Amino acid sequence: MADSGDLVHLIKSGARIIENACGPCIGIGQAPPTKGVSLRTFNRNFKGRSGTQDAEVYLVSPETAVAAALKGEISDPRRLGNYPKITMPEKVFADDNNMFIFPSTRLSATKIIRGPNIKPLPSFQPLPNNLKGEVLLKLGDNVSTDDILPGGSEIMALRSNIPEISKHTFCRVDSTFAERAMKNGDGFIVGGENYGQGSSREHAALAPKYLGVGAILAKSFARIHRANLINFGIIPLTFADKQDYSTVSQGELLEMETDGLAQRLCLRNKNRKVKTEVELDLSQLEQEMILAGGKLAVVRKRQQTKR
């Protein structure tokens, strides 16, 4: 676009160019003003996701966004006339590779240099035969990954620093959660329907794992978040009877035998002296990941076996 001159026309018309990365979609850059209305072609508009807690974010098609930019208000793009014919140039990308740093052929001699805000990924221990801990937090339905770990420049700038970003886990739901979870060492989270909806943000599973959360007990899980929980060794349990959700409260002590993960397990409430049946539907690979402490642990184990 720069070579063709088209970029100049866009900038003169008021367009702003940002990185091709997770920017406004996770609240970093282009945050709307307080109570501001913003039209976005992203796929998320959860509260605070734009970087402004009380912004009114509407999801629209690219055509509608263009029409609104031209008209100054939400407009029907069909009123702009026929859709323009787009032809791709013969040469899309320059052949210049001077912006690439190619990997060394001597991998064994490669030194990984990390800045002060980049920490190695923590390693997690295999699942113990007995999982015991406090219910650290009890939540309702449709908890999003933004509720678990909010977006925005203050928090998302710590994505490569798990110890630091974990301090913000559930910070807008319960500001004491991270400190309590780290102090307890092990624990459970209880949720309602569709736990973990929204962005596929893996940190929403990784941060609770780092803080010691061993299992999430919910009525149901959002599909991608459930996969992320398993990837990091957190057990995604569902109530066999959803009515039992009301029998578990925050602060109570739960215990479960995990030796031989079955499809139906018994969760003991040490405070109420009652037992709750929970379900765990895992494939063979998912069970292997849970037992090993996560997907990376399985990969390392398999590599060591090959050697």
Query: Biggest β-sheet: count, sense, barrel?
Result: 7 strands, mixed, barrel
Text of the CATH class of the largest domain: Alpha Beta
What percent of the residues sit in helical stretches (DSSP H or I)? 10-25%
CATH topology (fold) name of the largest domain: Aconitase, domain 4
Q: What overall form do the CA principal axes indicate?
A: globular
Strand-and-helix sequence, N→C? HEEHEHHHHEHEHEEEEHH
Tell me the Rg in angstroms: 24 Å
Mean pLDDT: 91
**Can you identify the CATH superfamily of the largest domain?**
Aconitase, domain 4
Strand content: 15-25%
* H/I helix tally: 10
- What is the spatial order of strands in the main beta sheet? 3-4-5-6-9-8-7
CATH level-two architecture of the largest domain: Alpha-Beta Barrel
Structural class: alpha/beta
Please tally the β strands and state the result: 9
Distance between the termini: 49 Å
The tally of domains stands at: 2
Note poorly predicted spans: none
Account of the protein in words:
- The protein has helices at 6-12, 62-71, 145-148, 153-156, 162-165, 177-184, 203-210, 223-231, 284-292, 295-306; strands at 37-40, 56-59, 130-138, 187-190, 213-218, 235-239, 253-257, 264-269, 274-279.
- With 307 residues, the chain is α/β, with parallel strands linked by helices.
- It folds into two domains: 6-80, Aconitase, domain 3, CATH 3.30.499; 130-306, Aconitase, domain 4, CATH 3.20.19.10.
- The strands form two sheets. It has a seven-stranded mixed β-barrel. Strands 1-2 form a two-stranded parallel sheet.
- Helix 9 (284-292) packs across helix 10 (295-306).
- The chain is globular and about 70 Å long.
